[in-house]
Amino acid sequence: MAQSLKSLKDRIRSVENTKKITSAMEMISVAKLNRISDFASSIKPYAESIETILKNLLTSVEALRNPFLEKRTQIKNIAVCVITSDSGLCGSYNMNIIRLAEKFILEKGAGNIKLICVGKRGASYFRSKKTTEIINNFVGFNGRYAPKIFKEISEYLIDIYTKHEVDEVYVVYSHLSTGMVYRPVVDKFLNIEPTKGETIPYMLEPAGPEILEKLIPRFVNIKLNNILLQAFTAEHSARSIAMKSATDNATELLSALILLRNKIRQANITQDMLEIISSSEALKG
Q: Fewer Cβ close by (within 10 Å): the C or N end of the chain?
C-alpha cells in the first residue's frame, strides 16, 4: 500500500508538471495567434478589394492576353502547394490538410502532380510515402509572418507556371472563416479564372489593359500572402485549442488522482488505527 501511494504521488507530480507545460504552451499559442491574426485581419480587406476590382475590370475591359489568365489546352503537370505546420501539438490540423491533399492528388493522378511543401509536417509525410515528387519545400516558419519568404514562395510558384514547368497551381491549406473556425480547402492559384463581376463604368487612366498588367501580378502576390496568413492563423488557433483541451484533461485527471490519494491515505490511517486498537485489546486480554 505504501509503494502504491508513492507511485500515485509520483504520477500526480508528473501530471502537475505536464499541466504546467500545456498551460504555458496554450498562453504562447494565444499570444502568437493574436499577433498573426492582426496581420491577417489587416491584409484581408486589401486582398478582397483588389479581387473585386480585378473581377470588375476583367468584365469591363476587352479580352486581355496575360500569362496569368491563360488557360492551357493540355494539362500535363499540376503543382500542388501543401501548407502544414513545422511542429506538432495542434490536434488534427495537419492530418486534415494532408488527407485532403491526398484525395486531390488521387483525383488528378499522382503521376501528374508536383508537390511544393510549406512546413515540415507535410514534407516529412509525403517524403515517407514516396508516391509523389516533391520539387521544393519551405520550412522554418513556425507560424511566423515573414514577408521575405512569403515573397520567395510566391515568386517560385509564379516562375514554374510562367516557364510552363506546370500547367496549373493549386494550394491546399486551412481556410479561416469567422469565429476562428477553420477547414482544409483546395484553392486554385494559377491560372486566374475570371469570374463575372459588376460592369462598372470606370474612368481609367492609363488604359484598362495597362492597369490590368500591373494589377494582376499584385493580386497574385497578395492572394498567396493572404492564404499563408490564414493558414498560420488557423495553425495557432488549432494549437491553442489542443493545448487548452490537454490542460483541461490534466486538471480532471489530477482531481481524480488526488481523490484516489486521499482515499488511500484514509484507508492507511484506518488500518493503522485498527491495528493499534487490536494491539491494545490484546494487551488488556
A: C
